[in-house]
Amino acid sequence: MHTQQKDTVVNIEVPGGTVSGDLVIPTESEGIVLFAHGSGSGRHSPRNRQVAHVLQASKIATLLFDLLTPEEERTDERTGEFRFDIELLASRTIAALRWLHESADTQHLPVGIFGASTGAAAALMAAAEHPTRVYAVVSRGGRPDLARPQLSRVRAPVLLIVGGRDVEVLQLNREALALLPFEKELCVVEGATHLFEEPGALDEVAKLSADWFRGHFAEDIV
User: Fold this and answer.
1) What is the spatial distance between Cα 19 and Cα 96, in angstroms, rounded to a whole number?
2) pTM for this structure?
């Protein structure tokens, strides 16, 4: 029997405008994962979509959304000015988190956040701001160091996934790991570089992520 799912494009009101998202809810979903993409990317990121497909096959709903409005995206393509505006990216992630909490289709589902690159910092800041709503966080090749002032406030279990050949980012993740006060883990995908473009590398990221989210969606938030 084929897995049925609800697949819709949604609009989310955020400070400064409206952003779009792709919401997929498989039948009997165990939770939902909000994707916060990295610098210069968007909800159509092929890497995040590949991870999302694996999560959906594991009965986890997904929301991939644009952190920037269309106008901001056009500006950012020219100037890059929003790419490291972590406060802005975190505010958008929090707005999407609030949208999930208020939407009839998703408000009953435990929420996790998957952050890539700078999106990982936004994910961790959102988790710090809403400890009773975020069940788990996964960072792929992330920059958790950009959320350094907030790391001590993160209560959600955090999985940091880094490529073994992404040397500088790996060191930054090791430093961030030490600052996270609760359940945390650093997984190194050997032989992988920053974008996990090597054969099988992104598949490993997706499997690690699905296992992490499913393992924590069943738990109560303390």
Assistant:
1) 9
2) 0.93
